[in-house]
Design brief:
CATH class of the largest domain: Alpha Beta
Distance between the termini: 45 Å
CATH superfamily of the largest domain: Glycogen Phosphorylase B
CATH architecture of the largest domain: 3-Layer(aba) Sandwich
Number of strands: 13
Helix content: 40-55%
Strand content: 5-15%
Radius of gyration: 24 Å
CATH topology of the largest domain: Rossmann fold
Number of domains: 2
Amino acid sequence: MTRRLSICYAVPGHYLLPEVGPTRNVLSVAEALSQVADVTLAFRRVVSPVESVPYAIVELDPEGNVPCSFVDDSAVRGTKLNDFLRYLLALKKFADHHSAHFDIVLEKSWLLSGYLTHAFQKHGIPGVLVENLVRIHKEPPHNLKGLNKYFRHCLSQAIVRHYARKAPVIIAETDELKAAITDLWGIAGSRVEVAGLGVDSRLFRPTDQKLARRELGIDPAVTVLLYVGVLDQCHNLGPVIDALSRLHSPGVQLHIVGDGILRKAFEEQALRSTAPVFFHGRVPHRAVQQFIAAADLCLAPYEPQAFFDGKVSFATLKIPEYMACARPVVSVPSGHILRLVQDGVTGFLFPNDTGNWIEFLRFFPDRDRLRQMGLAAERSVMNQTWETTAQRYLQACEKILVERNAQRLEAVVGDNVGEVPFDAK
């Protein structure tokens, strides 16, 4: 019987906070991967434990402090230099103490992608980088603070490129991201595998809208626009809030589920405009499906300029989850989104600015049409599973291990050749 691989899936850039998208992504992959391998998840710290899961969970920095409040699961944003350096030492210590426990390490993309896998490689344990974002810097340095921020960005990206070039395989979550990695980091395309995200169809599936609205206290007669996710620079809700305030559309409400560094700004914008916008904050993971069920149309208002080359390269989790619940989606015609949403069939694609939103809301489709589009959306993601994602991860791991074993065998054979007597006759 073949021994199952022992895989460490490390997430240095995040705390374990199950209701937030990046954490949910990792948990879903780990659950599917656990069907074929022994998986240990390693977050910086465990903030909200998860129970009854088929994988182990450990902390990368068990002695570190846990912040009192969270806007998302980011574990390094705003960290002071001395604390960050201490964390790097904690990561090295983790690799030193656990190198004998794993066959291979997956490292989820973060500020210094590749640092932890490099620490494991020193002990002979190979690693795979799992990338979902190539970081870019858009703000010109107008002052000393801006110059310092720009310098830190350039330094971190130089370190990431250095480690990435040492990684035998990199997993990118979209084709657009693979192109960015090869262009910016100088990595050969043959070393970058693409593994998209899946959908948890057990949770994200069509359910009764009237029941969901009754339980959430939402008027059954209104048309509900819904956004679920982090409120940050990559997701711009300003234009739709502005459009709703200008049109005063009767019977249309915008509900926002989630938290983030821009939540306060969006709340203040909504209060100034008196637009029908409702902020629900962070909710338990299972409640997300209930909000989607209550909606008529779901939003994914990405900001393309926040991405390399002005193209959305995220393997967005929210869009396929919306669609699996039989809800059409409004998003932008950019990058990976074009592979997910068919304009006029499973959703609507237009640039995310106030003018386009005003035009859309003036000729807003009726709820019957939205229901029909939702059914088409559901059909389009039926084959998007986490098991498929996990299989691609496993293939990348096995590819590395096979190549490493072949190199070891070649080295052993080469060493032994000189010891075999040679009969000149």
